[in-house]
């Protein structure tokens, strides 16, 4: 017998809305929880999320709701698309309602005080819940416009992965599975920082060689850090690693890229973030990542360089000079250099 309970999406932003619509297209009743009653009413009446996904028709199977307790009680499978800064605050007061539920984080961020990933926070809050993550090259607007897209669901819980694949896999959206939750989730969080740098480089008129160098060295840096934290570097060769890094560092649709582009045009960080008016997780991730990499003794020159520009008063020219004149290194960390004579 099929489960007729609604699937719930928590978060009224662009990604929550895109995923709610995908689930609805696959025939599932969906409840999309959002905190703003006016936004919920606007969606109910106009079938559109005008602030976060203008021009996209929201399917009738998606019911916008604002009662979080009822939403948590009535569903078993949840997709959590809240900003990383809000996830713990929103869900912690409802811990007992989450026991035994399937909680899948879509959020690509790191908690400032604890350096925890979002699925680790979910586990803290609800140790008896079944936890997974979704991550990959997934620009919300492109998903909503049915661009052919792939993602990864990752969890140690194989049955959860299968449930998510069955719910989301569709005509324009492929869902691959992975058992490496930590690697998949870390890839999604780290790449946002490099998208800021890539946006800056484009605004400064840098060429294709530069973009390619940035993306490739970013992958080296991310992987080096991930390995220091116990992750499997092979995961970074997949959709949630290099796949997401490429899309976020290449697309003007990425909000992190847009923040970088605005910085490259000469705006301050505050101006760039407020001009965006949406979540750009890379800004917070940069702060915690810089501190963590220093603590762990991991060489991350791009992270250190962006941090120096945004928070230590260095100019872009100073940082570029420092990066380019730095001691030459070997290309790929994980290949032995013993082949040199
Ligand atoms: N947009 C994308 O293309 C995309 C793709 C993949 C993953 N993600 C991830 O999804 C997460 C959510 O991003 P988004 O793109 O949907 O953001 P968004 O900027 O489009 O919207 C943020 C939403 O969160 C809500 N919100 C903010 N603070 C809240 C709080 N305290 N309580 C309840 N709701 C609150 C806002 O009202 C808004 O509805 C981010 O971590 C992002 O990295 C986004
Ligand atoms: O718009 P961004 O920069 O938050 O990126 C969106 C997605 O993470 C891309 O996969």
Automatic annotation (TrEMBL):
One of its GO terms (molecular function) is glycerol-3-phosphate dehydrogenase [NAD(P)+] activity. Belongs to the NAD-dependent glycerol-3-phosphate dehydrogenase family. It is found in: Cytoplasm. It catalyses: sn-glycerol 3-phosphate + NAD(+) = dihydroxyacetone phosphate + NADH + H(+); sn-glycerol 3-phosphate + NADP(+) = dihydroxyacetone phosphate + NADPH + H(+). Keywords: Cytoplasm, Lipid biosynthesis, Lipid metabolism, NAD, NADP, Nucleotide-binding, Oxidoreductase, Phospholipid biosynthesis, Phospholipid metabolism. The active site is at 191 (proton acceptor). This is Glycerol-3-phosphate dehydrogenase [NAD(P)+]. The gene is gpsA. Catalyzes the reduction of the glycolytic intermediate dihydroxyacetone phosphate (DHAP) to sn-glycerol 3-phosphate (G3P), the key precursor for phospholipid synthesis. It holds the Pfam family NAD_Gly3P_dh_C. Residues 7-160 form the Glycerol-3-phosphate dehydrogenase NAD-dependent N-terminal domain. Its EC number is 1.1.1.94. The keyword Zinc-finger does not apply. Residues 180-321 form the Glycerol-3-phosphate dehydrogenase NAD-dependent C-terminal domain. Sn-glycerol 3-phosphate binds at residues 108, 136, 191, 244, 254-256. Gene3D superfamilies: N-(1-d-carboxylethyl)-l-norvaline Dehydrogenase, domain 2, NAD(P)-binding Rossmann-like Domain. Pathway: Membrane lipid metabolism; glycerophospholipid metabolism.
């Amino acid at each position: 017998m099929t489960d007729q309970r609604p699937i719930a999406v928590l978060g009224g932003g662009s990604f929550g809305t895109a995923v709610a619509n995908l689930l609805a297209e696959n025939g599932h009743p969906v409840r999309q929880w959002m905190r703003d009653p006016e936004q919920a009413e606007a969606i109910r009446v106009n079938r559109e999320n005008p602030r976060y996904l203008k021009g996209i028709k929201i399917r009738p199977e998606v019911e916008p709701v604002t009662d979080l307790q009822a939403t948590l009680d009535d569903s078993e499978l949840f997709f959590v698309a809240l900003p990383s800064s809000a996830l713990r605050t929103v869900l912690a007061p409802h811990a007992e309602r989450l026991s035994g539920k399937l909680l899948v984080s879509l959020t690509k961020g790191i908690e400032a005080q604890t350096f925890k990933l979002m699925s680790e926070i979910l586990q803290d809050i609800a140790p008896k819940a079944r936890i997974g993550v979704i991550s990959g090259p997934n620009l919300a607007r492109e998903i909503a416009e049915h661009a052919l897209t792939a993602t990864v669901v990752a969890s140690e819980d194989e049955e959860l992965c299968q449930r998510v694949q069955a719910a989301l896999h569709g005509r324009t959206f492929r869902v691959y599975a992975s058992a490496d939750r930590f690697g998949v989730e870390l890839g999604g969080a780290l790449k946002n920082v490099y998208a800021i740098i890539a946006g800056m480089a484009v605004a400064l008129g840098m060429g294709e060689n530069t973009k390619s160098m940035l993306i490739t060295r970013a992958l080296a840096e991310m992987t080096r850090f991930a390995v220091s934290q116990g992750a499997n570097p092979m995961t970074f060769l997949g959709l949630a690693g290099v796949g997401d890094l490429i899309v976020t560092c290449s697309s003007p649709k990425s909000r992190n890229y847009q923040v970088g582009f605005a910085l490259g045009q000469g705006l301050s960080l505050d101006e760039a973030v407020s001009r965006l008016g949406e979540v750009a997780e890379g800004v917070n991730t940069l702060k915690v990542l810089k501190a963590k990499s220093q603590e762990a003794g991991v060489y991350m020159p791009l992270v250190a360089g962006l941090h120096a520009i945004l928070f230590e008063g260095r100019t872009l020219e100073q940082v570029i000079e420092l990066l380019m004149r730095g001691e030459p290194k070997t290309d790929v960390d994980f290949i032995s250099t013993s082949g040199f004579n």
